[in-house]
Design brief:
Length: about 90
């Protein structure tokens, strides 16, 4: 039983560390007051990059039109992001 609790504690510590140091977040964004039709769920960086910083590093800025043009965040353009979008987000 003691061995199981050590393994369980180790798994919890690893999961917490992965959550803390993970550079990504999944966020639902609405542009304007019509949601979810005018918005979506995106994989975004936790860090708030400007739109210029986002395009300069080769990522994909998430931009929509609500009442005005709205920059929602920076989405990584990686195979992991494409996999998550196609598998879980169905956009």
């Amino acid at each position: 039983m003691k061995k199981f609790s050590i393994i369980a504690s180790s798994v919890i510590v690893i999961l917490v560390l992965l959550y803390i140091f993970n550079p990504y977040k999944v966020e639902t964004v609405c542009f304007g007051d019509v949601c979810p039709q005018n918005g979506g769920t995106y994989l975004l960086y936790k860090h708030d990059y400007t739109e210029k910083e986002c395009t300069d590093m080769g990522a994909q800025p998430i931009v929509g039109i609500g009442w005005t043009r709205v920059y929602a965040g920076c989405s990584p353009d990686t195979s992991l992001a494409r996999f998550i979008k196609s598998t879980f987000l169905h956009e």
